[in-house]
Amino acid sequence: MTKLPYKKLIIWQKAMDLSRAIYSFTRTLPDTERYGLIAQMRSAAVSIASNIAEGSQRSTKKDFLISSIWQRGPSQN
Fold first, then answer.
1. How far does the chain reach from its first CA to its final CA, in angstroms?
2. pLDDT of 32-43, one tens digit each?
3. CA gap 42, 25 in Å, rounded
């Protein structure tokens, strides 16, 4: 299977939009949250787009779908 161009995936583009929105929002939070809530929110936001990009490079469509379903778990907590 040809590897999917993740930058063309709408879900990846939306994940990048979400990441930018979270970075903008966390700039408004107090500095006391820098190493707590801010770091955690930013890490989670970047992780979503990164996982989609990584999953799109799987060798088969089945692997990509399994990877996407597996990665969906933590974001639902």
1. 33
2. 988 899 999 999
3. 10
- Domain definitions of the chain by residue range: 6-75
What's the per-residue H, E or C state across 2-29?
Answer: CCCCHHHCHHHHHHHHHHHHHHHHHCCC
Beta carbons within 10 angstroms of residue 19's beta carbon: 19
Q: Are 49 and 19 in contact (CB under 8 A)?
A: yes
User: Contact at 8 Å (CB) between 44 and 75?
Assistant: yes
Class of domain 6-75: mainly alpha
pTM: 0.69
